[in-house]
Amino acid sequence: MKVLVWMLVLVLVVVGVVSSEGVDAPPNVLVLLADDLGIGDLGCYGNTTINTPNIDRLASEGVRLTHHLSAAAYCTPSRAALLTSRFPTRYGMDANRVLQIPVILHTTSNAALPKDEVTIAEAFQAANYTTALVGKWHLGMECSFLGKSCLGPSNHGFHSFFGIPTTLFFEFGEPGSFWVFPLWKMMNRALIATWLIIMCSLMFGYYKKILKASHIMAILLISHFLFIFLWFTFNHCNFTSGASTLSWAAYVLLLPFRLLDGNPARPPSTSSVRVSEWFRTNYNSFLFRDNKLVEKPIQLEGLTQKLVQESTQFLTSRAKDNRPFFLMHSFTHVHTPMFSARHWKGRSRHGRYGDNVEELDEGVGAILDTLRELGLEKNTLVYFTSDHGGHLEAVEPGTMERIGGHNGRFKGGKGQGGSEGGIRVPGLYRWPGILPTGVTVDVPTSLMDLMPTVLSLTGLPNITQLVPRSADKELDGVDISRLLTEYNVVEERGKNEHTGKDQHPTRRIFLHHCQEDVHAMRLYTGEHVYKMYLYRHQWHKGSTQCGWGPMNYCPCFTQIYNLTTQPMLYDLIQDPYEDYPPITHNTSEYKAVTRELLAYLQQWRDRVYFPPSQISSWGNFMWRFWVQP
Ligand SMILES: *[C@@H]1O[C@H](CO)[C@@H](O)[C@H](O)[C@H]1NC(C)=O
Ligand SMILES: *[C@@H]1O[C@H](CO)[C@@H](O)[C@H](O)[C@H]1NC(C)=O
Ligand SMILES: *[C@@H]1O[C@H](CO)[C@@H](O)[C@H](O)[C@H]1NC(C)=O
Ligand SMILES: *[C@@H]1O[C@H](CO)[C@@H](O)[C@H](O)[C@H]1NC(C)=O
Ligand SMILES: *[C@@H]1O[C@H](CO)[C@@H](O)[C@H](O)[C@H]1NC(C)=O
């Protein structure tokens, strides 16, 4: 009897505590986004030699998703999808096959997430949360004349922003110099020769009294303007890594005629869109606070700590004013270039890349520790993910040291939207007391599920109720809250029954874009996860990548196998790493699955409108110097 009474008291106390917490404070949301981090780079996803205790703890205290998929394999489109829960092709934020520029190139670009799209930050703003973005944005800064004000994140629901407007470029590591004139460049030799010829002719003309002094002055002025222009173009706009400056010039000159013909031929080579270290650093290496530039060029050493400090200060302010918050901390690690604070150099077992992963983990730890010290841990939903897979091709130009991520046994990486390694990323959800701890979910999920899931878990109205403008915007993500909260119950019923039949849609189809084309599709049926390839990359022999180099990626429209007439089909439950031959074409399984997926794709294409690509446009490519901050 006594025991029963005590139990009753205990139950009442527990219920009282839970409900009083639930009523008073609306829950907070913290999103931790890593950049270019591979699924094989973390201890909690099976890496035994890297040291990521903080992220591993997040996994053991929450739900670990093993089949978590990004909508794209490049930063800009994947981040757009994460924030809007919609495919980037729906609003022009994915590359087209003409220019193939896959991301926003610089701060003055006119490409940006359309104002009309509704982001998760905007939803939380509508729910009276304080919202903040710390770290990388890369979705367009929308700068005004002379760069006086760059709206960027503040146009998309973030009350405050501190971080980098675009991305880190590997050239930021070496600022380079303005006065360069390498004589090994044919163009520079030609410049010198022309200069000498003009000078000699002028002197000759002067002594022979053919030219007047005023003519000479005019010629000198005009020719030197031209020389400076050519010198700058030849030395600071390096179109020479894959194609010559001349072939670019020819392409640009002929483009209007080709467009009139309705046949815009491919540009010389997209990997050749390069500028010099000096140019890149000076027109792009910025740190912003809200709409204003506050640091140029960025001091890379200590950047991670500076951003983390900003987030911990934000948390401290919220603990004081007691307002619910939505904080997105978007790490600049582990994108190239590699850099770390002095105390991190050489600490990991995996060179500079490993140091960067472990520094990222330290940052995650610092933010989570602050959350706990401020007493906010219990009431905060935390989500950790990476925008896409690791960049396999990335090497340090001189030393060839690998500086890209590791995607475990999955094949392919960054840039390959159809390959598993390009899009299979870590995904962790933690909310003490609400989500189960130490649970693994193998059901396929998407980064695009974030908005509907988080609004549902936090008990807020849905997106159309919060932001009525979103009513005509179809979401590509779904609410996986029941999968997260009830999954362990299903798992207990039987090892093989990892389907969540009554918790989650038992059928779901995923599209996998490589830039604007669909390269692969996935069908989840409860028992099976099928993956169907329409295109595959032509990898270098013996690898799952396309060459080496910090700017090398597999192209999406060339160097591919076209399988559209006979798609390749894998069952990822039987063969998760696609090591074995695909399912044979004459089986009824193959026929049924490919028929269903191809019919779905046809319907999708008939139904969904795709506007022209913004990021594969001249407005993104061109340096719009008049809005340069
Ligand atoms: C762990 O991560 C490092 C860094 O990416 C990588 O070099 C290594 O191969 C990984 N090890 C395992 C066992 O996955
Ligand atoms: C936000 O605050 C406004 C004004 O105080 C209120 O009318 C509205 O209902 C609040 N929204 C939510 C979702 O709580
Ligand atoms: C949001 O809720 C309303 C009313 O419950 C419902 O009609 C609408 O379909 C929901 N929208 C979404 C996107 O779930
Ligand atoms: C692949 O082949 C199909 C059918 O032959 C064709 O319609 C399509 O344009 C091809 N795709 C590419 C990228 O060449
Ligand atoms: C499919 O074709 C293979 C050889 O190409 C044959 O061995 C197999 O029996 C066929 N299966 C069916 C179901 O027809």
TrEMBL record:
Residues forming the Sulfatase N-terminal domain are 27-166, 277-459
| Transmembrane regions | 190-207, 214-234
Going by the entry's taxonomy, the superkingdom of the source organism is recorded as Eukaryota
Give the signal peptide, or none.
Answer: 1-20
Reported cofactor(s): Ca(2+)
GO molecular function list: arylsulfatase activity
Organism, as annotated: Petrolisthes manimaculis
Name of this protein: Sulfatase N-terminal domain-containing protein
Task: Report the InterPro entries cross-referenced here.
Answer: Alkaline_phosphatase_core_sf (IPR017850), Sulfatase (IPR050738), Sulfatase_N (IPR000917)
